Amino acid sequence: MKNGIYIVATPIGNLKDISSRAVETLEQADVIACEDTRVTKKLLSLLNINLKKTFISLHDHNEDEQLLKVIELVKEGKSVAQVSDAGCPLISDPGYKLIRHCKEEGIYYCTIPGPCALICALQLSGLPTNSFMFSGFVPNKDKARFDAFNKVKNIDTTLIFYETANRIVKTLHVVAEVFGSREISVAREITKIYEECVNGTAEELISHFTENEPKGEMVLMIAPPIEQETSLKEVEQALQQELAKSSLKTAVKTIVATYGLNKNDVYSLALRLKEK
Ligand code: SAM
Prior knowledge:
Low-confidence stretches: none
Bound molecules: S-adenosylmethionine
Distance between the termini: 66 Å
Shape: elongated
Number of helices: 11
Number of strands: 10
Oligomer: single chain
Radius of gyration: 23 Å
Largest sheet: 5 strands, parallel
Strand order of the largest sheet: 3-2-4-1-5
Mean pLDDT: 94
């Protein structure tokens, strides 16, 4: 096996999702760079892979120092498989600085692709897949969370965030405030026994998770501002017709009710149309 870095994706729940290329690489690599050596050793044992190799921990808090050790090993002729606890390395997981270093130093690297939570969630969501934006974890602090959603709310794309079970309800309250009646999807426990993907408005999902205690790992997705089948042009035309026959307030109310859109969004659009 050629010396270099092999970015190896591992299962996000179902062990059978490991690829044969991933198994071969993990078997043959001299070194395994991983977030938590206990987690990765357990995975390798389940796959019947010999543990007699070097394990190096490389996580968010030590990546800067550890990547230099990894690079040294590659220069000495070693092959290094880089894995995270689950799923695709580098995606809301450490590793990108290591790859940047490889690029700069002309060190060989390649990807051994496999399960990625955000892609699996998008597939399950039934939301538009032609364009999407992944923004990592929803920020933990109240203001940062609100600001993060506000920053992206008008982008015409499906929005994807990683989230945890204990924060989802709090987050959905902010989603309701920022996105109004937009369609939301939450996929959880993907590839596991209790895999589910629920859709609805943020308020509906708050009710769902109040009745069914949120459990497991989850991905939050938000539909584009206006669903694909309802083009902005169509809404503009309908709003213009309403504005011609009624007050701004009534026109906005009618369009919000007809298209299930966010009141503030329709209000801004109505003001823009009036100015024109
Ligand atoms: N790098 C991994 C990937 O992209 O596949 C993700 C690692 S990130 C530290 C962990 C987050 O990914 C979880 O908090 C959750 O949002 C999401 N996730 C991972 N596995 C999942 C699963 N089986 N079902 C739903 N979400 C999952």
